[in-house]
Specification:
- The complex is a heterotrimer of chains A (264), B (417) and C (393).
- Helices cover 19% and strands 27% of the residues of chain A.
- Chain A is built from 6 helices and 15 strands.
- In chain A, the strands form 4 sheets. In chain A, strands 1-15-13-5-7-11-12-4-14 form a 9-stranded mixed sheet.
- Chain A is globular.
- Chain B folds into 2 domains: 132 residues, Beta Barrel (OB fold (Dihydrolipoamide Acetyltransferase, E2P)), CATH 2.40.50.840; 240 residues, 3-Layer(aba) Sandwich (Rossmann fold), CATH 3.40.50.720.
- Helices cover 30% and strands 21% of the residues of chain B.
- With 393 residues, chain C is an alpha/beta fold.
- Chain C is 36% helix and 20% strand.
- In chain C, α7 packs across α12.
- The radius of gyration of chain C is 19 Å and the shape is globular.
- Chain C starts with 13 loop residues before the first strand and ends with a strand.
- The chains are: A alpha/beta (264), B alpha/beta (417), C alpha/beta (393).
Amino acid sequence: MTDFTPHDIAAAIAAGSLRLVDLTFTLSPEFPVIVLPPEFGQASPLRIQQISRYDADGPGWYWNNITLSEHTGTHFDAPIHWHTGRTLPNNAVDTLPVEHMIAPACVIDCSREAAADPDFLLTRAAVEAWERVHGQVASGSWVLLRTDWSKRSAKDYANLRADGAHTPGPDPQVMQWLVEERGILGFGTETIGTDAGQAAHFNPPHPAHHFLHGAGRYGLQCLRNLDQLPATGATLITAPLKILNGSGSPLRVLALVSGKGSNG
Amino acid sequence: MVEPLQKPARRTPLQRTRRQALPPVIRSRSGMLLTKAAAEGRFALQRCRDCGTFCYPAHDACPVCLSVELALEDAPTGGLVVSETTVRVPADVYFKERAPWRVALVKLDCGPVVLAHLHAGCGEGDRVTMSLQLDKAGLAAAFARPANIPPDAADDPQWREMTASPKFRRALVTDGRTAVGRATAAALAAAGATVHVGIAEPWKPFDGEALPQSCEIVPLDVTDERSVRDLAADIGGKVDILVNTAEYARPGGLLDRRGTGTIRSEIEHNYLGLVHLAQTFGPAMRGRGADGIDSAAAWVNLFSVYALANWPAYGTFSAVEAACLSLSHCLRAEMRPGGIRVINFFTGPLDTEWFQTVPPPKVAPQTLAKAIVSALDRGIEDVFVGDVAEDVRRRLQANPKALEHELARQGNGQAGQ
Amino acid sequence: MPKPASPRTPYDGVVIAAPVTIPYERYSIESAHWWIARALRALAETSGISARDFDGFCLSSFTVGPDTAIGLTQHLGLSVRWLDHIPLGGASAIAALRRAARAVQARDCDVVACVGGDTNHVDSFRRTLENFSRFSQDAVYPYGAGGANASFALIARHYMNRFGVRREDLGRIAVAQRANALRNPNALMKTPLTLEQYMAARPIADPIHLYDCVMPCAGAEAFLVMREETAASAGIKGARILGSIERHNARLDDVVQNHGGWVADIDDLYAMAGVGPDRMDFVQTYDDYPVIVMMQLEDLGFCRKGEGAAFVQQHDLTIDGTFPHNTSGGQLSAGQAGAAGAYLGVTEAVRQVLGTAGPTQVPGARVGLASGFGMINYDRGLSSGAVILAGES
């Protein structure tokens, strides 16, 4: 590694020995956002207002104003997002260490289980079973829960019923264990939240948010193309917008994977 | 007699859509008093305070006693057709395109002789019921109808010119998620309209069963400029009646609320929603005001009566509604050249979740829906629905300052307010 | 039949002279000012009195706006000591001659030029309708925009139903006037009209059909009013005014107009004139519609109310007939040149009593009546007037 230079990454990508996978949904006004009971404040979906399009408002140029929440579309959760992380240092997107923006990822494929049960919960036992095949989850890495949820239609993706959303996620024990025992950098999902749709009824409620952010760790949600990642060996590039005191940010999530794998 | 209306055939693509010509628009300021009455669906005439004479046409002084104290007063609607004619060669474009046109001299039971538009169901020697309608220019027009309404009375072409009947028209109800939206869609369908119902965020559950089979659900999020534009691109050319049922009402005023999120949402749903709809659907509707039996006809806004006077318990919502009301007058002015009626409803608190704690009387969504169809059938422009709305209107008229204090003291029914 | 004496001052010593007609045109690109100027010049030429010596001016015109008579004094170079502008439509000429007669009688001035003239642009008619009156703007024009046709249709239908008048009866009036018009070289209508053609005409506003309507056109009519001695010194002849009336917004209890205002004053008219209707050698009524002619024949005492139809059946209304009526062809066949339409009957009557009517002359005519009617402000004509003229004594 001593003679490795940043140019080598570009060269490897050009040569095909490294490949970039885009884990990001297109930001669009129709993309579902988290639904809270209406008496709470709500996250804004994306709204695009055209400033000009080669017209009287700007004859030679096209551009838009956009409005959206920090948690719209494929986005990053910072520790300050949750009450458990509110007093931590460097807990907002503008202050978090840039070193954390490139980190390895473990991908746990639960797509079969999630297809069978929308309320599927990742357990410590399931992760330990994964570790028996792929080795222990390394400290400082992302754990990504692959459910293929991102392949669903918008309605099935949100999967709202009278008693709330029904989407897969982690159970409280596995979150506490991953954070405290494995020292993960963060947890990522394909669904609208890092927590399961019914996680408000867990103890503690919303355990992914509770444990991750309480320990200064991060969340990624609304990811896609996790099926193009190896179980181990991918490196995520996750640089949120540098929003003053921001609780999170829409972002482009890119994965670097070895080019020897299948091409997506 | 009235020829029953037939479902219109599809248009030939070879013919230019007829542009809207307007009937004559010059009126005296006193004459506009009648337009005020017509807008509310009242048959009212000037009456001398001193000698009681009903005056028509609009006077500035009583021709019997020269008093200048003439007040608009509801008048008996009965009259007798004493002469009639059928105008076959009108001097202006609007009537020329619609000739032959029947008019009559009607001797009112209350005195004056009125030249009125004459319904096909009555003629010389008949007893008639008088009303003041709004013509395509939005101005008062005396109308004589049969005292005993015959079937298909609403099909009379002259009556249809003065109204916005849903029969054979295509309606867009912008938000089917609200109780009012669902009730309105059902009422319009029952009145003979083809109904499109907008649903925002289709990924959220929606019980389409609550709508009549004939209603077609379309994606529409009034807060999203692009969503509105996309729908207008699809069906903008065939929306004859637009009822904006999208609403975002939240309790709360200024000082006891942190941040502007809710307020922005109120602005986005109510004010910008109206802006988006107007900018996308408005021009197409304005171009089709004279497009045959199923011409574009009406735009319906549903406002809170607190658009007229701020109710601090819903303080920011009231303010946004006031902005919407102001905008509706702009819309009305811009739609008028196309002969499109902009109908504003003013309601008291609705019997819905966001006014749950407000004590009765409240307006049931079905009541509002029925009032919408009725207003379209009658062609009126300003409608107050429910006891609270009527109460606020009268208090405002009598003493705005008193109403300001009364509303300040009136909580939303929740403890602590 | 002896007439009650009229308490009013007679128009003694006053004459109407120099009747002029500026031949009508269906449409004109000229202004009303142009037509009025031509009438004034014709007055000067006919009378031999210079327009500089006209010291009174009375104007009626619908299309001279934004000007009124005062604007025209400067525009046309008149310097007068008596001025009037009369906006009474079809009653304007009667009102003009009455006012002018009193002015010269009282020596407020010596020679009054009375002019009714209008242009007719392609769009003039509609504009006049649009702006006719406030009541009309508020409560008539927006109701089908049928203009006078619709307003008179409502009156005609009611009148016909009330008195059993048939279209054929009204047609006799129109047909007779067309026959008269064929002898008037200035009449716009040049072809004969039969009762069959009248009956078969297209409806305009039921029961008004095409030949019940006048044809709007451009033109001017005028006369001079002066004292007898002024006329004598100019070497011209004039018609004497035996009597005249006018009435505005008569208090009639007609729900729909069945009468004109004449009925209120008719006894006074004949009392002042000292002659009854049976002495008239001709009658020039205001004929905006035949039904109004019939109403006038009744209201002016030629027959009783309700007998108009029988009257026209029993009389021949042509120049050579038993009741010479609208000998110029009237507005129905000569054309309606706006306010000049009010003057048409008066200028023709002056010519008849002076024996200068030429091809339309009623042989031996010495005394005749001309009437005016105007201003459908809302649902009825408000103004009425009549004058009885005689040739030189």
